[in-house]
Amino acid sequence: NKLCAPENKTIKVLPLPIPNDYLGKPLILTPLLEKGKYKKAQHLSRVKPDIGNITSYSGFFTVNKECDSNLFFWFFPAQNDNWKEAPLLLWLQGGPGSTSMYGLFEELGPFESYPEGLKKRQYSWNVENNLLIIDQPVGVGYSFTGKSCYPQNETAVGEDLYQAVVQFHELFPVFQKGKFFISGESYAGHYIPALGHTIHIHNPSAKVKINLA
Questions:
Q1: Residue spans per domain, the chain
Q2: In this predicted model, what pLDDT tens digit does every residue of 108-121 receive, in sequence order?
Q3: Which family does it belong to (predicted)?
Q4: Rounded Cα gap, residues 132 and 147, in angstroms
């Protein structure tokens, strides 16, 4: 069954009650990436079934082990045939404290949300770009921490984001040589330079270098 209608049609998608014991544990990919098992991590993070024939991957990256802090991501490869060569675009919501799922469903992602269900967005940013959505800072949206270690300044936010971006490039090594763009709105004007500065500081000695455009 299709969960998303093509073009301008919508298909009704009703929320189903799911018992808590059915949800399972968060899919934290960091242990697999540390062992170099990125292909297994890709397989586990693949969202199934595809929504409206849109391929996507989702899960969590541990960005601070001592605090058990984990950032949630949802990745949508470009819809064209040359997605491996397409730029990688990170979207950060503002707020502060707003989930990036708002931007995904209401502004630029491959889906539009309506009371009747989901519709495929005609001018999604992932038509020509690889779109990476991250809920941040820790504690926003699906991102969580085990010890209430919420970041207190942009320096901490930038470091957490950097750890997530590096792990994403380990999850998809194909993007390590491609261009990486950071985008967002509103208070993300604080997050974007924080991440860019952190990349600039770490890149010279980093094993995984981020090709910031």
A1: 26-205
A2: 999 888 887 788 88
A3: Belongs to the peptidase S10 family.
A4: 26
